[in-house]
Amino acid sequence: MNAQRFRNPSTTNDTQTILNTFLDDINYNNVNSLPCNNDPRLLASRSRRGRRIQMLTGKILMKRNVFREAYRLNIRNRYLINLAVDTIWNLRLTPYQRGRFIILATSANIINQFTVSRTRLIHNPNTQITTHRDTNELEQSIFNGINFNDDDSFDSLILPAGSFSGPSPFP
């Protein structure tokens, strides 16, 4: 409750009263229920929406339940909800209940890390097949394009049409 030192004393008492009322009205069965029916794969896929993957903690999972419960009770004050989350996590949950949230979050994070590493492995250009195949000259010219500048003589470097040693095709 570090944020209380920034509030004036009269609102601190009001906030504490509202917090206590909120903590009394909460349905703790809803707060203690594990998200996604305790399925870490489903939880991992929900935390992977978009390009950014959210790292989950047990407290974050429980916080979602407290937010849901706060909206059910028509409480929209984020400061009050965060105070309630800290109070519930530190004082109202047993170590077993905290452990269930932590294990579920850890399992979902492991699944996401495996998925990310597998995706990076697929998209990494170093893992693609880059072995050189011996091909004949026709295949080289078809696949790599024809190189018209094979002549490395001095004339071909100076003259625009390269060196020409024969009768001129132009009159």
What string, H for helix and E for strand, traces the elements in order?
HHHHHHHH
- Proportion in β-strands: under 5%
Termini, distance in Å?
Answer: 96 Å
Coarse morphology? elongated
Low-confidence stretches: 1-7
Summarize model confidence as the mean pLDDT. 80
Chain oligomer state: single chain
Radius of gyration: 34 Å
Number of E-state strands: 0
For the sheet with most strands, the description reads: none
List the total number of helices: 8
Q: Helicity range of the residues?
A: 55-70%
Structural class determined from secondary elements: mainly alpha
Protein name: 3422_t:CDS:1
Organism: Funneliformis mosseae (Endomycorrhizal fungus)
How is this structure best summarized?
The protein has 171 residues and is mainly α. It has a domain at 16-122.
Descriptive overview:
The chain has helices spanning 9-25, 28-32, 40-47, 58-72, 78-92, 95-123, 137-144, 154-158. By secondary structure, it is mostly helical. It has a domain at 16-122. α1 (9-25) packs across α5. The longest helix has 29 residues, at 95-123. It is elongated and about 95 Å long. The N and C termini lie far apart (96 Å). The relative contact order is 0.11.
